Amino acid sequence: MLVDALGPGIRDNPEDGLIALEPFAEKAAFRKAFAEQRLHSKKALAHIIHERLGVAVNPAAMFDVQVKRIHEYKRQLLNLMHTVALYQAIRAEPEIDWVPRVKIFGGKAAASYHQAKLIIKLTNDIARVVNNDPTVRGLLKVVFLPNYNVSLAESIIPAADLSEQISTAGFEASGTSNMKFGLNGALTIGTLDGANVEMCDRIGAEHMFIFGLSAQQVEARKQNHEFSAVPDIAASHRLSDVLQAIRGGVFSPDDPSRYTGLIDSLVDYDRFLVCADFDSYWNAQMRVEAHWHDSQQWWRSAVLNTARMGWFSSDRTIREYATDIWKALE
Question: Per-residue pLDDT tens for 253-281?
């Protein structure tokens, strides 16, 4: 457990979660120890990535992680579109002080879910192009770890710097992986959806990166049948360039038409509002980059993420169920 690894005395009553950690967020020595523990976990994950995929990644880079079931509403495609946009931006302006980043994907798709399997294929195609392009100078790496399971999660979650919780608002029933990442000190980039809403309330919006349409705005688009992505694409040169690159075979030179159907269907009927949220997501990722550059503030936010996740403990949850729902403690 992360808290155990940081040394003795970092404990508190379950009634208060880990709130006693909060003063430690202001202590430089503690933040340093916290960061060193993360680096240890990242080195272990880097070894797994190299062993399984043959890809060398820099443990000092930001580990940007999205691991969950592959589904269109969870919007791995949005993350991939940002990956392509970042790749294009680094190539266009290599002199900028870009944050070195490793995009880590993992998850399984249902056997008959064609679009989900195509998204996995696209992830690996993008990884192949990006990882073999010397012009990005190792500033961006992309990996898809196959056969995602609990054992692999135990290596990935403690190594994550950024947790991608980017489902279309109103579609995620709750979510639990976001809590596991938050407890381990990863900062969350996400929509106000599912448990992200409560996490934002408890952790503080200034220690998360919230973006995108609200559930109410998504519902309004649904009621008005506003699912064409044409206006969103017309308003964003960056989004247009990304879609053209994917559709045009930049990442599938062996089969240039491989993703034509995927992109055309997205343009015609963007049910999960991937294009609608793209620019907001890009801007949130730029806030991530700025925060990472201020390492003292990043690790302060990381410690506070761990400290303030105590409210989500099973002790509190079961006690509230027993009192408020089951009426067992009256």
Answer: 999 999 999 999 999 999 999 999 999 99
Q: State the angle between helix axes of 237-247 and 278-293 in degrees (0 to 180), rounded to the nearest 10.
A: 100
* pTM above threshold 0.90: yes
**Which range is least confidently modeled, 56-65, 223-232, 311-320?**
311-320
Record the tokens describing residue 137, joined without a space: 């100078």
What is the average per-residue pLDDT within 62-70?
Answer: 97
To the nearest whole number, what is the mean pLDDT of the chain?
92
Q: Identity (one letter) of the amino acid at 300?
A: R
Q: What is the pLDDT of residue 240?
A: 98
Give residue 6's pLDDT. Answer: 45
Q: Delimit the domains of the chain by residue range.
A: 28-325
CATH number belonging to the domain at 28-325, selected among 1.10.1040.10, 3.40.50.720, 3.40.50.2000, 3.30.420.10: 3.40.50.2000
Beta bridge partners of 189: 164, 209
For residue 113, what are the contacts with CB-CB under 8 A and spacing of at least 6? 70, 71
**Beta bridge mates, 102:** 63, 141
Determine the Cα–Cα distance for residues 164 and 104; give it in Å rounded to an integer. Answer: 10
DSSP 203-266: H-GGGSEE-S--HHHHHHHHHTT----HHHHHT-HHHHHHHHHHHTTTT-TTSTTTTHHHHHHH
**Given its phi and psi angles, is residue 107 left (phi above 0), alpha (psi -120 to 50 degrees) or beta?**
left
For residue range 218-231, what is the model confidence (pLDDT) as tens digits?
A: 999 999 999 999 99
Give the whole-angstrom CA distance, residue 62 versus residue 59: 8
Q: For residue 194, what are its two tokens?
A: 């599912």
Distance CA 320, CA 201 (A): 18
